[in-house]
């Protein structure tokens, strides 16, 4: 595997392009839990075509976002691009498309431009984007935040950690990060913050764990997969959550890979390759 070596890196990980200073971790993440989640992720991907396909799928998603948002002026952004990219963002409550229809193109273009390239700090830019969407309801607020989080992360995956609500929601105290806490936790004890610097601190910790296991390439994508594995483990223990995640879940079995690809907004690598091999019959 090209991203793995048995030689443990001597340096502490920090994304080369990161613009965030990580906060000091208050919560105690558990290395043994992380190792277990990592092994589950590797076993899962090995059963479904190998991890390289998932890394490739995440990099392809990054390329789509980068091509759309790494532009030199707001006017280069089209509503069609925004709509197609929104379809790649996981949100259990599909609430943004109808709201975005009411926003004039030039205003939406300018706001996304400032989210990505603005001079204010990242937290302020994300909150400004949410307020711009007029996200007064909780579900719309979460959807707007998640869209902003994915725009930033998948346009510049090494610069910004993935900050979606499924990674961590401080208000509900639910998310993938909670699954790495070893001791019993409750609403008071799960002292994980929700600022971009808090997400970066968690990303640095996870990256250090991967480094200790000998992983040294595509760390940002491996962390995305590891977080999705952790949250899928949580969802699989709660049937009601799975029903919200996929209304068809009662009619079929669902596994962690189904959840992971949906959370990350990527194609299932095996299914994509199978689709390529299906012959086209012309009548």
Walkthrough of the structure:
- By secondary structure, the chain is mainly α.
- The protein has one domain (31-275).
- 53% of the residues lie in helices and 0% in strands.
- The longest helix is centred in the first third of the chain and has 19 residues, at 51-69.
- Residues 1-12 and 272-283 have low confidence and may be disordered.
Helices and strands in order:
Blueprint lengths: L30 H17 L3 H19 L9 H8 L9 H6 L3 H13 L4 H11 L5 H18 L40 H17 L6 H17 L3 H7 L10 H9 L4 H9 L6
Helix pairs in contact: 1-9, 2-7, 5-6, 6-7, 8-9, 9-11
Computed structural class: mainly alpha
Measured distance between first and last alpha carbons: 43 Å
Tally of domains: 1
Strand proportion: under 5%
Structural shape: globular
What Rg is obtained from the alpha carbons, in whole angstroms?
Answer: 19 Å
The helix/strand series, from N terminus to C terminus, equals: HHHHHHHHHHHH
Helix proportion: 40-55%
Question: How much is the average pLDDT?
Answer: 81
Regions with little confidence, pLDDT below 50 for 5+ residues: 1-12, 272-283
Main beta sheet strand tally, sense and closure: none
Q: What is the β-strand count?
A: 0
Query: What is the number of helical segments per DSSP (H or I, 4+ residues)?
Result: 12
């Amino acid at each position: 595997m090209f991203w793995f070596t048995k030689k443990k890196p001597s340096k502490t990980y920090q994304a080369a392009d990161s613009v965030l200073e990580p906060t000091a971790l208050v919560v105690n993440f558990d290395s043994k839990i992380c190792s277990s989640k990592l092994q589950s992720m590797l076993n899962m991907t090995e059963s479904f075509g190998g991890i390289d396909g998932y890394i490739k799928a995440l990099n392809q998603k990054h390329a789509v976002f980068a091509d759309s948002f790494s532009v030199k002026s707001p006017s280069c952004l089209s509503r069609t691009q925004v709509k197609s990219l929104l379809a790649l963002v996981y949100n259990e409550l599909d609430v943004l498309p109808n709201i975005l229809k009411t926003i004039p193109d030039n205003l939406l273009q300018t706001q996304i431009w400032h989210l990505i390239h603005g001079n204010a700090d990242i937290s302020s830019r994300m909150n400004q984007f949410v307020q711009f969407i007029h996200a007064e309801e909780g579900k719309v607020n979460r959807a707007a935040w998640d869209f902003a989080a994915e725009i930033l992360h998948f346009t510049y995956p090494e610069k910004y950690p993935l900050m979606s609500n499924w990674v961590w929601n401080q208000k509900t105290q639910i998310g993938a990060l909670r699954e790495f806490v070893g001791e019993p936790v409750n609403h008071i004890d799960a002292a994980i913050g929700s600022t971009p610097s808090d997400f970066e601190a968690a990303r640095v910790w996870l990256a250090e764990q991967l480094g200790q296991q000998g992983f040294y390439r595509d760390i940002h994508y491996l962390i995305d997969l590891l977080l999705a594995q952790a949250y899928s483990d949580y969802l699989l223990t709660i049937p009601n959550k799975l029903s919200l995640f996929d209304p068809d879940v009662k009619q079929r079995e669902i596994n962690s890979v189904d959840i992971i690809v949906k959370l990350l907004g990527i194609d299932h690598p095996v299914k994509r390759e199978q689709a390529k091999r299906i012959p086209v019959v012309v009548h």
